[in-house]
Every structure is written in structure tokens, then in C-alpha cells.
Specification:
The protein has 480 residues and is mainly β. Helix content is 14%, strand content 40%. The strands form six sheets. A six-stranded antiparallel barrel has the order 1-2-3-6-5-4.
Length: 480
């Protein structure tokens, strides 16, 4: 058939003198078609793997609500032992676990990792025959292999699948680095291989410019550490309480300081704690703060590029700064969103930097109140969510979008208030990458507030949203 086709085409083209070129091109055409078929088959195979991994693992991936903290987890045993990150549940003993089928089940936090290992175990109440995630073999992970993350990013997109590769393996610290998209809320969820087996527990992202979304550099605690922790849980030797802030890891204990006290003197070196996301050294300090206090954190050093990170009482990243203090010194100004014990990390910009520093934490009063003069206003809008509002595709809720111009290092407070529905507030950059979000000011207040230091100079996008698709009514949006 192929020969007759060639003869037929050739005979029709002899008069044009193109017969020879056609005969030469035909094998190339067949080869290109073969490559296309191969690529199509490969794409179909990859798609089948994606679907299979999700179908096998997602029924055992859960969302976790622990007070103001949300995260993800994996069911490890049929009777409901759930594995997650310690920083997700460190401020709670009783939590609510949302199963993949939507059921809400109470759970008790029964164990934490030792030495700051960012793992915790939750035991669900009254459960049996639950789906489970299988653990991969020890030391089975290689750079370049595919990695699948399932979790609840931003606490509102339950059982989201993202795909990437293993970018780096750090056996000394028991960490896997991946470019699979990991965002706040994914913490505690599984990182899986192509067999749908857990190779790690997602725990951190590298966010060098402030609290925000995925940067393409995420970290997971390797399955070797996970298996050792689960052994301690089963034999009853795992601690029942978090021994220290789980984000801090080993190294020096956190030192308590007082707002407004003289600056402390410190030194970062090989005896300091190590930040999992980039391997840099840090010292930890804690202080007691009150909701609405505006504080200033200043870190200065002539030996290294200073970097400060501020963690909320539940362990969430409230803010960080690199060079706002000038000459590689750091300065962070922020308003505390709640009362409690805050943690300051005196850090360096790059891994391996060592040297002496001084750190001061002081207060500058309170956030501007509603009676502040209009000169402090950046944006104030009266809006409404109704039939003509755009629809947020992920959950069907309504929203309105606004923009404002901001400067790097500028301190802003964004509030959304409504007496008619439960508000939800989101801040995006120019490329619609999430910077921060908030649901409720407090458990008793459904208004939303964001307090942050702007990471760049340019346009910011504020999305005034409702918590769910039932939200309708008027609201006021203010940026100061």
C-alpha cells in the first residue's frame, strides 16, 4: 500500500521535477509522525499516572482546623491516626479534621516530633475503615523523579493536586526540595511518588520577599524522618506537647525579651538554629504582644546581611524584612493582629553567613483608628456583592476587585467590613500572585483585616470577597 501510494504520487509529480524531493521528504514525514505519536503516548501515560495517584491518595488527605490555623494531613491508619505538621496544631489540643468526603470529625493532638521536628499526630474519634496513605521505602527518593502534592492551599481549596519534581535531597537535615506548587495551607499534606506513596510531609516554602504564595521552592520532611516519628508515636515515646516552636528546629533555645528593652547582642554561627527553607542561621526571641500594637523590629550588623522574620502566636509568618534599615540592616514595622506570644527570628539573607548583631523590638503605639485624618487613607470604597458581581471560580463566591499604588516597605492596614455577610479579604500582586488573605478578625468578628509591609513598589490588587457563595450585601473597604 505504501509503495503504491508513493508510485501514484510520484507519477503525478514527475512533470514538475519534484518527485525526488518528495521521496526524500517522505521518510522524514513518517519519522515526524512517529515522534508525534510517541509524544502523544507519553502525554497520555503521564496523564494516567496523575489521575491514578490522585484517585489512590486523595481520599486519605484531610484538612485541619486548629483555632486560627489551617493545614493539611494524611490518614495513616484505618482507625484515624492523622499525620501533619506540628506548626499547624501546636496551639491546640483539640482540632477539627475535614475528611475528603466533607465529614467534619473531632480529633485530639496526641504527639509531636522531638527536637523541633515539624511533625504531629492527631487521633480521630470513633473512626474505622478509613482510607490511608501508604509510606514509601526508606531512601527511595531521587532528584529528578516526579513529585505530587495534595493539600488545602490557603485553607479553602481542599484536595488540590499540584505536580513537579524532586529538585534536591538534603539527607543531613532530612528534607526534600520540590518545585511542585506548595502554598500556605498545604502544610502537613503528603508529598507523593508516582506510586501514590508518601515520600515526605510538606512543611515550608521559600518566600524571600514576605509572606505570600508559592515561589517554586518548597520543602518536605523526608519519609525517613516520618517513619521514625510514627514509630515513636506507636510505642508511646513521642512527646505529647510541642517542646519548642516547631519552625525553629534544633540549636539555641528561644530567648524571652521585653518590648522597649535595650537591644540584645547576639552572634550567628554553626551553633545557631538552621532555617529549613534555605539553610541560613538564626536565633529566636519571643515577646508578649497585644492586639493592635504597632511594633518596630530592628536588626543591625557590620558582619553580615541582616534579615528578620516575625511569626504569629500560631506560627504563621506575619512579616519579614531584608534591607529596610539601610546598609544591609533590617527593619520591620507591623501591627499585631492578636494578643499572644510572638517569635522574632534574627536571621541572615544567605546561608552560611556568620557574625555578630544587635536586635531591638519596640512599640510605636497603635494602628490608626477610624477617626484618623483622611490624609492617611490610600483607598476607601463603598461596595456591594450582588447579581452583577464577578464570581470567584474556585468556590462560586462573589467578589469585587480594587487596585492601589504602594511603595516597598510601606506599612498598610486593609479592612473589609460588612454587617450583612461573612467577609473574605485577599491581596494580590500585579501578576495575581497571592500576597496575604484573611477571613475573620476574630472568632466573634466576621470582618477581615490585613496588616503588612508591602514587598515592592507598584500596583496591588485587593479582592473583596465573601466566605462562601451565599454572601450578599454591602461592605466598606479601606486601605490606610
Amino acid at each position: 500500500m505504501k509503495n503504491s501510494l508513493i508510485r501514484h504520487v510520484s507519477s503525478g509529480l514527475l512533470a514538475t521535477g519534484l518527485c525526488a524531493s518528495l521521496l526524500l521528504d517522505l521518510p522524514g514525514l513518517l519519522t515526524s509522525q512517529g515522534r508525534l505519536l510517541t509524544q502523544t503516548a507519553q502525554a497520555q501515560t503521564e496523564e494516567e499516572v496523575n489521575v491514578r495517584v490522585y484517585a489512590e491518595a486523595s481520599p486519605a488527605v484531610v484538612s485541619i482546623e486548629a483555632g486560627n490555623s489551617t493545614g493539611s494531613g494524611s490518614i495513616i491508619t484505618p482507625d484515624g491516626l492523622v499525620l501533619t505538621n506540628a506548626h499547624v496544631v501546636s496551639q491546640a489540643q483539640q482540632v477539627t479534621v475535614v475528611l475528603a468526603d466533607g465529614r467534619r470529625v473531632p480529633g485530639e493532638v496526641v504527639a509531636f516530633g522531638e527536637g523541633g521536628l515539624d511533625l504531629a499526630a492527631i487521633q480521630l474519634q470513633g473512626q474505622r475503615n478509613l482510607p490511608t496513605v501508604e509510606l514509601a521505602e526508606h531512601s527511595s527518593v531521587q532528584v529528578g523523579q516526579r513529585a505530587f502534592a495534595i493539600g488545602n492551599p490557603f485553607g479553602q481549596f481542599q484536595n488540590t493536586l499540584t505536580i513537579g519534581i524532586i529538585s534536591r535531597v538534603d539527607p543531613n537535615r532530612g528534607l526534600l526540595q520540590t518545585d511542585a506548587s506548595i502554598n500556605p495551607g498545604n502544610s502537613g499534606g503528603p508529598l507523593l511518588d508516582s506510586h501514590g506513596e508518601m515520600i515526605g510531609v510538606t512543611s515550608a516554602i521559600f518566600a524571600p520577599t514576605g509572606p505570600g504564595g508559592n515561589t517554586g521552592i518548597g520543602f518536605a520532611i523526608a519519609v525517613d524522618r516520618v517513619q521514625s516519628f510514627l514509630t515513636a508515636v506507636r510505642d508511646g515515646t513521642a512527646p505529647r506537647t510541642a517542646q519548642q516552636s516547631p519552625l525553629l528546629g534544633g540549636g539555641r533555645e528561644a530567648q524571652r525579651i521585653t518590648l522597649g528593652a535595650p537591644a540584645v547582642q547576639g552572634r550567628l554561627d554553626t551553633s545557631s538554629s538552621v532555617l529549613p527553607s534555605d539553610g541560613s542561621y538564626f536565633d529566636a526571641y519571643t515577646f508578649e504582644g497585644q492586639q493592635g500594637q504597632q511594633i518596630v523590629i530592628e536588626m543591625a550588623s557590620s558582619d553580615m546581611n541582616a534579615y528578620v522574620i516575625l511569626l504569629e502566636p500560631n506560627g504563621d509568618n506575619l512579616g519579614q524584612d531584608d534591607d529596610s534599615g539601610g546598609n544591609n540592616n533590617a527593619r520591620l514595622v507591623t501591627t499585631l493582629p492578636r494578643s499572644g506570644i510572638y517569635t522574632v527570628l534574627a536571621n541572615t539573607r544567605l546561608a552560611g553567613e556568620v557574625g555578630s548583631y544587635q536586635l531591638g523590638v519596640s512599640t510605636q503605639g497603635r494602628t490608626p483608628s477610624a477617626g484618623t485624618t483622611s490624609s492617611s487613607l490610600i483607598l476607601q470604597e463603598q461596595g456591594a456583592l450582588g447579581p452583577n458581581s464577578p464570581v470567584w471560580q474556585e468556590d462560586g463566591s462573589l467578589y469585587q476587585e480594587y487596585t492601589f499604588q504602594g511603595n516597598q516597605g510601606q506599612q498598610v492596614t486593609i479592612t473589609m467590613e460588612s454587617g450583612e455577610f461573612d467577609t473574605y479579604l485577599m491581596l494580590f500582586d500585579e501578576r495575581y500572585q497571592i500576597i496575604d488573605q484573611n477571613n475573620d478578625v476574630s472568632p466573634q468578628n466576621t470582618n477581615s483585616t490585613l496588616v503588612l509591609t508591602l514587598p515592592y513598589t507598584g500596583t496591588y490588587r485587593v479582592v473583596a470577597n465573601a466566605l462562601d457563595r451565599s454572601g450578599r450585601g454591602r461592605f466598606q473597604l479601606t486601605v490606610r
